[in-house]
């Protein structure tokens, strides 16, 4: 099963910039950006980021405000601060043995860095990988990680798998079947997450009095360290 998958990947791999590097820092940046943002939106931002901050040391030396500003538009802004803090750890102590000690790095991102950055045979597990393994009944190795991601993102889709073009169709016991519809994430439009995002965008443009902003959103952003509120009520980036 894995050979079929790898042969297909050899023919149809998506050319993504983080697949051309084994620099663990570049992999970290790409994985944190990809945690909740689509690939197409991440590509140009990833390239800009590495041009501006090519090493953990360069990123660690940047003011948190610059990092938050550079993150604007990627969403889930806490990731920017986590990435910044992770760069500080790596710049001062080196890469920890347990990568999940780095802020913003969970088991999936840690496995991705170990595989794509340090060449270890570990399989980063996300919903796509789990779905393909469940449907095929096969356990894949770390060598198949990128191929599995592509298959899960473009062929073995969650709602309507494209079995007719799937390289694993012949041996796959789930060929032609569908899963029950999954619960959808709540709409972003009008949500508190959108209010936070819009408030941070305003503050990133220029410091502003709290009274002119969404107070609840300011409080939540301040709790996460994404904005600072001065004694006179002025809200700015940290
Ligand atoms: S045959 Fe269908 S269900 Fe099986 S892995 Fe391919 S796309 Fe997924």
Task: Give a structural overview.
It is a single chain. This protein is mainly α and 238 residues long. The protein has three domains: 1-12 and 122-182, Endonuclease Iii, domain 2; 23-117, Hypothetical protein, domain 2 (Endonuclease III, domain 1, Orthogonal Bundle), CATH 1.10.340; 192-236, no CATH class. Helix content is 50%, strand content 3%. The protein contains eleven helices and three strands, in the order ααααααααααβαββ. A three-stranded antiparallel sheet has the order 1-3-2. The longest helix has 16 residues, at 78-93. The structure holds iron/sulfur cluster. Residues 132, 135-136, 155-156, 161-163, 166, 168-169, 172, 174-175 line the site of iron/sulfur cluster (SF4).
Shape: globular
Question: Residue ranges: pLDDT <50 for 5 or more in a row?
Answer: none
In which order are the strands of the major sheet placed? 1-3-2
Largest sheet: 3 strands, antiparallel
Helical content (DSSP H or I, runs of 4+): 40-55%
H/E series = HHHHHHHHHHEHEE
Per the CATH scheme, the topology name of the largest domain is: Endonuclease III, domain 1
The end-to-end distance, rounded to whole angstroms, is: 51 Å
How much beta, percentage-wise? under 5%
Q: Ions, cofactors, ligands: which are bound?
A: iron/sulfur cluster
The level 1 CATH classification of the largest domain is Mainly Alpha
Computed over alpha carbons, the radius of gyration is 20 Å
Number of helices: 11
Structural class: mainly alpha
CATH superfamily of the largest domain: Hypothetical protein, domain 2
Total DSSP E strands = 3
The CATH architecture category of the largest domain equals: Orthogonal Bundle
